[in-house]
Amino acid sequence: MVAHRPSTTICRFCAARPRGLCKDMQTEADFETLQVLQYRTRSFRAGTQIYGPHDVKTHVYNITSGWVSLCHELPDGHRQISQFLTTGGLIGYRPVGQAFNGEIATALDEVTVCAVPSQHLSALLERQLSLNRRLIWMLGRDGLVTSHRLACVGQLKALTRVAYLLLELLIMTTGHTGHGDGTTVQLPLTQSHIADATGLTAIHVNRMVKQLRQDAIVDFHSSTLKVLNYSSLKQAAQVSQDVKEAWIIQSVPAPQSGGATA
Amino acid sequence: MVAHRPSTTICRFCAARPRGLCKDMQTEADFETLQVLQYRTRSFRAGTQIYGPHDVKTHVYNITSGWVSLCHELPDGHRQISQFLTTGGLIGYRPVGQAFNGEIATALDEVTVCAVPSQHLSALLERQLSLNRRLIWMLGRDGLVTSHRLACVGQLKALTRVAYLLLELLIMTTGHTGHGDGTTVQLPLTQSHIADATGLTAIHVNRMVKQLRQDAIVDFHSSTLKVLNYSSLKQAAQVSQDVKEAWIIQSVPAPQSGGATA
DNA sequence: CGTGTGTTTGACATACCTCAAAGTCTGTGG
DNA sequence: CCACAGACTTTGAGGTATGTCAAACACACG
């Protein structure tokens, strides 16, 4: 059903395999409209900033490959990573009327994005219902994931927080919640990143990582995460099934026909 | 410009003074559509649960008066309040396809809400662009506020966290960020609520509240918050101006005409 | 008057932070 | 091939912010 588009401007990634904001775009009509956006791909090298806390956000970015962190820098110099994102993630959206959101988006490895001018997005939202649905879904999901992470950081012990984050990253990367022991994934993260995301010190994260390794739960070592015992990991992370499902970017079901009519 | 509606089913609050989800509804046409929803008001007594973590969320609620907390209960018995909301707040929305979101919504005092069946909302979203804009705005804002709170809980000291929360509640209640000393607001909260929201113990919150009082910054005492020195409070809370503005539920600017056209 | 809920205080325990330094690994340049 | 620098990881000793436990106090309510 996915049509090939001859356009040179439309993001080839989105056309070939719709993800993120474009995930549910499948009909010819959808692509006609998407083409108007004149998607452009941009790439960022590891460690570079995609946008800063006080940039006026001119674009929304659909991540097509690589890892990105969203980070808040506080006046006292501490940093809190609010989210890690990878392929299919949406960054740079801000509520209309809010000038800044204080976030810093950083490329953790080589990142390519599909850059949509905010103005074009707004205009398109006025015409494209499927895009509205998709954006609403993604924003709702992001809020949910963030609030669960808040509960994690606010209430759990250090070991649990680290296990929670590693499990989240594992599930995000593979896109499913059923894993066997021995699964290995590459994550372009240092222990400092984990520290900033969990509200701990890098030194203390190290001790927790060490313990998870000694307890034969997971081995996180030089950007490689290896699952030693998946069921122990689930237990150590103390997350319920519904939280895990929110970590996966899913399709939005088609709207139920019927409902309220005048 | 606000039209009087003769309907007995439409929420009178929304018709008289549109807030929350209905905030930008102002034209006759908007009300025509809203009426279809057959809004019903419901009320909840202090301490009662509006919905639980595993309820299938049949309704979305627009808060028309009172205070509500959104809380996550963790397996180990700890609780994290992710948000306090009052008049104009929207609760109960969940991303389509996510069965549960694990949240518990509790009425903190006498609460009245305008209950919109989720199915009706979905149907209406297919036709009403202003509602799409509004929902997107509110979800984007909620995510932003939550991620700022995450940074607060993850990185700040106990005293700062408490000051941050009290400042947030003050600004939410009054709807503006410029306050003089001596301002007093009623908040239906105990120190335990503040503890659950900040990730501290009630006992430690007490010590911090006591210190804020001794330092002549704020006096929080038996559900009453009195600002003793607003500029000290801002300093103690370490929040930037843009965060404060996100705490206020604002109107969504009309979509900029023009933009991308085919 | 008793009961329950919320607040306050003190003594003590501990999880986590801070500081300091050594140990790895990788890439670079001689 | 070696020397070096830089980033990351690992380990240890000691400090402190916060949690835990216990109990008294205040206040509302029946």
Written description of the protein model:
The structure is a homodimer of 262-residue chains. Chain A has nine helices and eleven strands. Chain A is α+β, with helices and mostly antiparallel strands. The longest helix of chain A has 27 residues, at 129-155. Chain A is globular, with a radius of gyration of 19 Å. Chain A starts with 11 loop residues before the first helix and ends in a 16-residue tail after the last helix. In chain A, the strands form three sheets. A four-stranded antiparallel sheet of chain A has the order 1-8-3-6. Residues 1-9 and 258-262 of chain A have low confidence and may be disordered. In chain A, helix 5 crosses helix 7 (202-214) and helix 5 packs across helix 8 (230-237). Chain A has helices spanning 12-16, 28-36, 118-125, 129-155, 158-174, 191-198, 202-214, 230-237, 241-246; strands at residues 40-44, 49-51, 59-65, 68-73, 79-85, 90-91, 103-107, 111-117, 184-186, 218-221, 224-227. Chain A binds a DNA duplex (30 and 30 nucleotides) through helix 7.
Summarize this, please?
2 copies of one chain form a homodimer. Chain A is α+β, with helices and mostly antiparallel strands.
Per-chain topology:
Two copies of one chain form a homodimer.
Chain A: H1 12-16, H2 28-36, E1 40-44, E2 49-51, E3 59-65, E4 68-73, E5 79-85, E6 90-91, E7 103-107, E8 111-117, H3 118-125, H4 129-155, H5 158-174, E9 184-186, H6 191-198, H7 202-214, E10 218-221, E11 224-227, H8 230-237, H9 241-246
Antiparallel strand pairs in A: 1-8, 2-7, 3-6, 3-8, 4-5, 4-7, 9-11, 10-11
Chain A binds a DNA duplex (30 and 30 nucleotides) through helix 7.
